[in-house]
Amino acid sequence: MKVKGYAVLEANKDLVSFDFERRELRSDDIALDISFAGICHSDIHQAREEWGPAIFPMVPGHEIAGIVSAVGSDVTKFAVGDRVGVGVFIDSCRKCQPCKDGLQQYCTDGMTGTYNGYERDGKTVAQGGYSNKFVINQDYAVQIPANLDLAGVAPLLCAGITLYSPLKNWNAGPGKKVGIIGLGGLGHMGAKFAAALGAHTTVFSHSPNKEADAKAMGAHDFIVTKDPEVLKTTPADFDLILNTVSADINIEDYLRLLKLDGTLVVIGLPGKPYSVSAPTLLNGRRSLAGSMIGGIPQLQEMLNFCGEHNIVSDVEVIEPSYINQAYERTVASDVKYRFVIEASKF
Ligand code: NAP
Ligand code: ZN
Ligand code: ZN
Is the N end or the C end of the chain the one with fewer CB atoms within 10 Å? Predict the structure, then answer.
């Protein structure tokens, strides 16, 4: 199948228009016309090889919302015309315990990423969502509720689930105090979800101008961290803090803000190790944890939750020719709060 998209041809180079092919439908595949594709900071990390060697040409994009255009002969879960989402992985082994439990992102054999990796045949390079068409096995796609705007839905497929999953796992809700570090693509979904789940929600941001937006998203408190000294006088009463920052920050400053048995979850992937001192962990029996996106059942649960609560991402819709500027603005923390590419313009 002929596809039009945008690709990085070489690490650190600008993205350019790129024509390529995807497989024709297998019996259990669906094809979709992509409507919108979100720009995740992980796309930028990989295009710039900030996580190590990558595969080029690379068509990034793992926040995909579209409309089913064709279904294979054995497809039961989707019909032509359905609103469909695709996230960070397109396959997994299906046999290991995490896969059987619907936690495909933790597949012991490794999930098959939507791009910058090989499909399970070990030789086909997976190409992502900055394109106009997609093909995927029906078991790795999800249904999008009818009431949600597709542009605002695209970022839910990575940014949304990546914050929803730890909030659910660590029981964010009434009576809990939750902190979100960084009000970017991930963080703004964290603020919306934590507030919708009924938790007292605090946003930590190094951008003072984001306060009104954070409050409009449901945050109760907004703490400006431009001068990290402010964290020394912030009370240590948080049950849960989620770090979504894409850059290297001192997480020790935030570990100290956890109350007894509180948990700090690492979500941002700056590509450098964090440093933590033992006394800060021991004092208060604190936990340092990590969390990665979410499995297919939870992805569907999150979208249904969004449908019920009318939650979507705040987006800036752009044309493909703006992708390179969008990368620069994302790195500069200058996006409100996710760039989404209009895929019909590829
Ligand atoms: P983003 O939109 O660029 O947001 C990151 C936010 O971090 C910025 O908006 C900014 O918020 C804050 N920040 C950036 N530079 C900073 C600095 N130098 N000092 C302090 N704060 C800074 O990125 P994203 O798409 O949300 O992704 C965030 C991170 O999560 C990336 O590293 C990405 O790779 C990773 N990620 C992880 C998973 C997972 O499964 N764990 C999934 C997707 C993405 P303020 O302006 O409010 O300070
Ligand atoms: Zn992502
Ligand atoms: Zn598996």
Answer: N
**99 shares its domain with 176:** no
193 phi and psi angles, rounded to 5 deg:
-70, -45
Do 330 and 248 sit in the same domain of this protein?
no
Distance from C-alpha of 187 to C-alpha of 216, rounded to nearest angstrom: 14
Instruction: State which residues form the domain around 230.
Output: 159-290
- Structural domain total, the chain: 2
Q: What is the CATH number of the domain that holds 234?
A: 3.40.50.720
| Structure confidence by residue, pLDDT tens digits, 197-252 | 999 999 999 999 999 999 999 999 999 999 999 999 999 999 999 999 999 999 99
pTM exceeds cut of 0.90 = yes
Express each pLDDT in 52-106 by its tens digit.
999 999 999 999 999 999 999 999 999 999 999 999 999 999 999 999 999 999 9
**Residue among 60, 314, 15 at smallest CA distance from 184:** 314
Residues with CB under 6 A from ligand 1: 40-42, 45, 158-159, 162, 182-187, 205-207, 210, 244-247, 249, 267-270, 291-293, 330, 333, 335
Taking the centre of ligand 3 as the mean of its atom positions, its distance from the CA of residue 191, in whole angstroms, is 31
